[in-house]
Specification:
The protein contains 16 helices and 10 strands. The protein is of the alpha/beta class and 338 residues long. The chain folds into 2 domains: 3-47, Homeodomain-like (Arc Repressor Mutant, subunit A), CATH 1.10.10.60; 63-321, Rossmann fold (3-Layer(aba) Sandwich). A 7-stranded parallel β-sheet has the order 1-10-9-5-2-3-4, sandwiched between helices. A 3-stranded antiparallel β-sheet has the order 6-7-8. Strand 2, helix 6 (119-127) and strand 3 form a beta-alpha-beta unit. Helix 1 (3-19) packs across helix 3 and helix 5 crosses helix 6. It is elongated and about 85 Å long.
Amino acid sequence: MARIDELRLMTKVARMYHEQGLRQTEIMEKLDLSQSTISRLLKRAEAEQIVRITVNTPMGVFSDLEEGLQTRFGLKQAIVVDSVDDDEAIARDIGKAAAYYVENTLKQNEVVGISSWSSTLLHTVNAMHTLPKETGAVVVQILGGIGNPATSVHANHLTARLSQVLRAEPKFLPAPGVVSSVASKKAFLDDQFVQEVVELFDKVTFALVGIGAVEPSKLLAASGNVFCEDELNMLRERGAVGDLCLRFFNINGAPVRTELDERVISMTHQQLQHVSRSVGVAGGRRKHAAIRGALEGRWINVLITDVTTAEELLKTPAEHDRRPKRAKEVASAKERTA
């Protein structure tokens, strides 16, 4: 076939497919071509730039930021939402995005972990719609949900509401997130009902977690599941910038190990890191350092956040790019440029 003849056929097939909306089977019948030939011609039409496919990004969609976060922090997925610079509005807006993500990505028979005392996750579950089919899922409370009776309803509502909309079985953790002593923690862990839930931590396949700053949120502070000011100052002095399930880490993501860990009843960083999808739902200026630390530590692999936070996270180079080069690396670089 002459070059012009092939170009003419490519153009005809491309117009029928892309402009007239015909299916490949319909084009087969009209032009008496095989489906493999039509498929080949459509691919060639792109290569010849007869067809140019562009994606027009709508207002309020931040694909470049999402792809940048995924590349920079090795995330499975990043979701960036537009929002005003107000903590309550940000929590509401990213909560809605997280609700949509959960509704559309939940697989059958998942073990879903959810952390207590997160106002953003509260917005998430309140924005969700009941799924149309049975899921066989189990929802596990991965941070102790007992606290001040006036606020414990929030922690239990998170688990109960998520179980309801996912048509799942709830597993409540009948223990505080923070206890007064190591002995108290042992007593709780000896309880049969606490044991049953804690044993499910290693089976979680899909975790929803808030990312906390060292300074506790109003909801967490009201729950009583907090450390005293001296203990918080000690965490700050050791470099802590945030926590996941009340397990603290520094700006580079390294765990900040203290005796306070022995008083926390929750999923650990290592358990969270082994979850197939560990979803951090957080945003706002107050949490920038905490979110960065969670990402640098690779403790989560999906992030749902606001546009201002996403832009801030992408401003700073990766930690390994900021470290001073060792003498051997410097010498090697000099040899390559010599």
